[in-house]
Amino acid sequence: MSEIPLPLDRFSSEAYLAALEDLVTRYAEEKEPVHYKKAAINQSGTTTSSCLKFFSDVELIEAEKAGVYVPSKPVLNYFRKVGKSKKSAQERIEESLQKYSLFSEVMFLVGTGDFTREDLSKKAAGQLDIDKENIPSISTAIGIFENFGFLETSDEGLIRRSSVIAEQSGTDQLEKDSKADSKNEPAQQDLSGDFPADESPEIEFPPTRGSPEDLVTIINVLSGGGTYSTEEITEEVEFSKRKVQGLTQYGAALGFVKEDESHQLTDSGFELSFCSDDSQRERWFRTAIREYNSYRHILRASFESLDKDVDALESPTIEKELRTTFGFTDNTQDTVRTAINTLLQTVEAAGFGEYRVGRGSNPTRIESSTEELQSLRDLVTDDTISERKDSQSPTSNQSEDTKTDQSLDQDTSQSEKEDAGESSEQDIEANKTTQSISRGPAIRISEIRIQNFRNIRDTGYIELENVTTLIGKNESGKTSTLEAISSFSPDYHYSERDLSTSANTSERDSKIPIITLRFELERLLVDEFYPALTDTIETPLTITRTKYFDNSYEAEIDGPVDAEEVELPTPNILYYDSYSHLSDSATIEQLENGERPTFSNLLDLGGLSVDTFEESSLSRYNAVEQAENRIEDQINNSWSQKSLNININWNSSEEKIDLLIQDQLNPDSATDERPLTYPSQRSAGFQWFLSFYINLLAESSSSGLESKVLLLDDPGVYLHPEGKRDWLESVNEIGMNEQVVFSSHSPYLIDKRYPSRIRAVEDTPGGGTKIREDIFQSDSHTLEPLRNALGVDLGSSPFISRRQLLVEGPTEYYIVAAVANYFEQELDRDLFGWQELSVMPVRGASNVIGQASWLDSEGIDYAIMLDSDQEGRDALDRIETHNPDIDSDRVVLLEKPSNSQDVVTEDMFDPELYVSEFNAEYEEFTSELDEDFEPAQVEEVDGLRWEISGIEYDGSRLDEVLVEYLENSDLSDYLENSRGEIEIRKRQIAERIASRLNRSDVDEDQLEPFNRLFANLGSAMDIDS
User: Fold this and answer.
1) Taking the model in full, what pTM does it have?
2) Structural domains of the chain, with CATH
């Protein structure tokens, strides 16, 4: 079997090029790695996925992760350029494909003789030892090469090397000579700001200390002539030694100061010291920006991501380029911040706008006119500059603008220019490192199992989401569950009190399992952990690790990998049952000794360090002001009830930092404010939220593949309802990067939008603590927080939403919530006001009438969603004939374009999606039986009909089709209930689908009927408006 990548022959060669062009189109719009679903513009997601996978295999595009791609620069230019630039891109694609053995063999063969496509495919297969069954795939590949323009088919049906490519290869040297001869001819100007195609600039990190104003002060000292030591300069100015060192380094970078063991001015430095007005000084700073490689390339890259008509250059734009394009990922936030501030102040000194320190939601920036920014863009896109030469400095008879125009008129090959808005290859490569591996933690615990721990005998395997909520009454075992997960840490050592009384003490000398964690690693993570084994590993790779009572570990890997010979994933588990409050102040000594951890984390969030407070007054003032803005932004984004001002004050006599907080009740008013207060003077709830959020942000700021697992025991007890909702939104954001498990009995901390995240914890008589994923089977006391959150049977409860969607049961609850979240988060689509309503499961269509009557009497807006089966139609008929208080227009029956009745929830999905989760559920459900479950197979007949393992399915009553399949299976006797009937495990399958939707592991076209359903629900709720 050949290992040479081959395209799937069921797609045409034209489909492959169309998928690649759509990827380029989407990437050009979004400037970030593209999921194949977003690239599916003109073709289905399945077709696009398969086509892009091939181009990734032959290295024309990069797979940032499974299904997420970045086109290479040649591919970008091939589809986005014309003329010589496209021709150049085509040449580079050919160079890249030469590493692909099938391409190089085909191109060789067509040069040796005449072949039809069929003959050429067979010949290449023989030469490369490819199985004959893959000859159609080789033929498709040849079609792809032809569509790229490398081959052409003659009128006689013979495959030949393209005449255009042949001419190119014969004239390469001639073109090189032409370029050399044309250097004195003017080239068309391209002020787009892009890097030349082959340029990959390497720059030094820009200066981090200094400002133009302070630099001029130093230059005036050095203008006396001769050399000065750092100490001698310090004696002449009111700066610290440390600041003088920073300023001389800044001056050296800009070409004004020569640094050796001492300091002296360059010719440019002397010219700057002689300037008598701002316009002259501006010209010298313009020269410095243009000739200092770091500033020129940083600004140039920053302009790539800006529109032509912007009026500001903002620090986040520059930071992105420093981190991604130029790879300065190891520098601290404080270092990057000060470097950007210095650069922007230099831009101001060059006369390109006004430097503005960030405040509130506005970042630090240069505010300029469009013309000023265009002039700066022109200045830094001059490709003729390579090295600084003092002799190039402007004179009094030649303005900087004139000199810039002359430089721009010099020739630069047009083929080396790029269109505005396209990123360099270095941008693409760097951007890949900044994308999250998936929606959620990099390495996520997929399941846990707790055994023999205190009152927990055996939970079985329980699935964990990115954010998982444990609900249950007091003493039900929520804390023990969290502590059991926490005990997986190597720092935790078990004692006798940890061992369950039900544990088999006769086996004390053997291993007693306590906590088992199961991980599923997708392809990107497998490549990261086991790069030498990726050819032999199928993904997802399941790894199971168990810790025993004797504190030893064992691991199992579901694949050809020896667990003892490879690195295993070890999550950093952090357990919180109490939270250190934020103190009012901290001394330098306390911070250095770690005595004020929350205060220290606060300073970290602002990008401040202890060293900041040892700087000069002006530098300290600027650093603290920006830190206050940064902290305010993060806190105010999470605390919706108030707009806070943060004041950090330095007490130099006591070497102490004081923290004061102020409520700005009306953000639009400068006078509607409360007095400054210390944190200890605020409410317990406010102190808790502020302290918790600061610490949580600090803990969740890690990068890399080893994510954290945050375990939070009954958080938010001091918060009032609005504060709890703010806290929940903050945790949801943190769950995008870290995994969170928290316990609660508050309805405000249960996110009704994600029912699949909820786990019910119960203390059962004689059975110890049980954890239920099927929350609707739990007892009424356990479910009370959930009932409150949903507003079920609570009359005038303040918990209830003023818009309700009544559905038949838990299955529909899981499905509607998950699909609505997917539409909103992935597609930015909300068709029925999802965020403002609650979904209320009512246990069957027959029970919907009483609940609807109650909602109507309370004046609550609602809609009713029912299957269009017989039970649903009967319920609608009863409403129309016997319940005039219920408007029948509020009832929405499920339907599909091909079916207007007998449509149930299961029919709303693409059959392949639903059946795949049906198979997964029953494979697990029957795993302990002697016989294996035979998965059902789906075969599409004509787009409106399918066969499911030989049973015809016309788009309605998929549940009955699957019951028939189970009845015909060898396991039917095991699957019957006490009545001798088989019922589909609808709720469990719905949970599985909900989990996939929460992970965005579906295609939009698999959910098409929900678009019409949600639009109908929106109309049903708006009938009285």
Assistant:
1) 0.47
2) 13-178 (no CATH), 212-383+426-433 (no CATH), 437-579+704-788 (3.40.50), 585-677 (no CATH), 801-1025 (no CATH)
